[in-house]
Specification:
With 127 residues, this protein is an alpha+beta fold. It is built from three helices and six strands, in the order H-H-E-E-E-E-E-E-H.
């Protein structure tokens, strides 16, 4: 084995072990494959967006896709956590959930939680 082929093999192993961090994220494909009905060889992935604490990947095939979030390792945590992204919750009572720009998770807006619910009289008014 030449020095060049050995360095290529070591580089490929590091990319495979890094999961969400680089190259072809095999771990991201595995998480995405759970939600899609495609063979692993048909799956494609791309980094969609990134924040200080999370990377979001799109995994897709056959005109379907799913989003996978990879939480970056911090401090004593040595591995990244990967999970499918939750879908956007529906709007209700005149408001919607807001997406946290750092975690890409949906959170209830505090102004919505403290708002007074609409009166039921509105439902029975004639136009």
């Amino acid at each position: 084995m030449t020095a060049f082929s050995k360095s290529l093999w070591v580089g490929a192993a590091l990319v495979a072990l890094s999961g969400c961090a680089g190259g072809e994220p095999g771990a991201v494909l595995s998480v995405g494959a759970r939600n899609l009905r495609c063979q692993r060889a048909e799956l494609e992935t791309a980094l969609h967006r990134e924040s200080a604490s999370v990377r979001e990947f799109d995994v897709g095939c056959d005109f379907m896709y799913t989003r996978v979030l990879c939480e970056k390792a911090h401090g004593a945590q040595s591995t990244e956590q990967r999970h499918p992204a939750r879908p956007q919750p529906p709007c209700f009572g005149g408001g919607c959930f807001k997406e946290n720009p750092v975690t890409f998770e949906w959170e209830l807006d505090n102004t919505l939680a403290s708002a007074e619910p609409p009166s039921a009289d509105v439902l029975f008014q004639s136009p």
